[in-house]
Amino acid sequence: MLDYKLLQALATVVESDGFERAGEMLGISQSAISQRIKTLEIRLGHPVLIRHPHLAPTPAGQKLLTHYQQVVLLERDLRESLPTLDEPATRLRIAINADSLATWWADTVASWCQEEGVLLDMVVEDQDVGLKRMRDGDVAACLCATPQPIAGARCEPLGEMCYYYPLATPTYRERYFAPGVTDAVLAQAPAIVYGPHDQLQHRFLAQCGYHGRFPYHLCPSSEGFVQLALAGVGYGMIPRMQVEASLENGQLVCVADAALHVPLYWHTWRHSGGLLQRLTTRLRTVVLV
């Protein structure tokens, strides 16, 4: 029989990325957390954590984390039918891409969180790599651009994020793109890229037939990304719904005729209970443009 206090310790260590912070979250000492992990490894006969060079679950640890995520959600369903088992609010850990978080996500889930009494723990990952968090057992669900579900999970398409055209200020466009979209221009015009895994800029360049190197600023913030574009620092792929006003008043303009449409998919475990199913139902109402 599994000791779920041990699994809770493992999940908290991974989520907080450290033993000390995990102890603070659970209200116990760092040594107590370490002892729980050690006990779990002795009972399992396998290590559950890789400690160097970075803290991460082993394959065995990943399976335990996935199981624990599902059990937490199923217990939530049980408490709804047996109120005497009531406990503090459920915390739901989800991997989500930054642009969705900066645009439509909050309005879509706000009333659901209130109705369900759920606290969200949102892990921001690029839409191309967020599914790895779910595969590792770190999150219970994932919103990303990958259509292929992992084993034991299901995937539902939500629509497409329209990144319109690469955008910049009129001054920036005049400075760099006056000759048009040529290889020489693309090789020297500074772009803005969200992070090392962000492939939107590369897709745009590929559409233009350019596959060489290009200068770019790294900005791991959707809001900061827009501010850099508005300041004339660079050009980049920005969701249309995030900058409608700036497009209408001319603060931002297109630098090339190459719109991108990125599909978004919602991934959940097959046996994740009614809570995630109700969230899935709510997400089906999203209209992405």
From TrEMBL:
Q: Tell me one GO molecular function of this protein.
A: DNA-binding transcription factor activity
What Gene3D superfamilies does this protein's entry cite?
Answer: 3.40.190.290, Winged helix-like DNA-binding domain superfamily/Winged helix DNA-binding domain (1.10.10.10)
User: Domain named HTH lysR-type: which ranges?
Assistant: 2-58
Q: Which InterPro entries match?
A: ArgP, LTTR, LysR_HTH_N, LysR_subst-bd, WH-like_DNA-bd_sf, WH_DNA-bd_sf
**What UniProt keywords apply to this chain's record, in alphabetical order?**
DNA-binding, Transcription, Transcription regulation
The family this protein is said to belong to: Belongs to the LysR transcriptional regulatory family.
Record protein name field: LysR family transcriptional regulator ArgP
Q: What is the native source organism of this protein?
A: Vreelandella salicampi
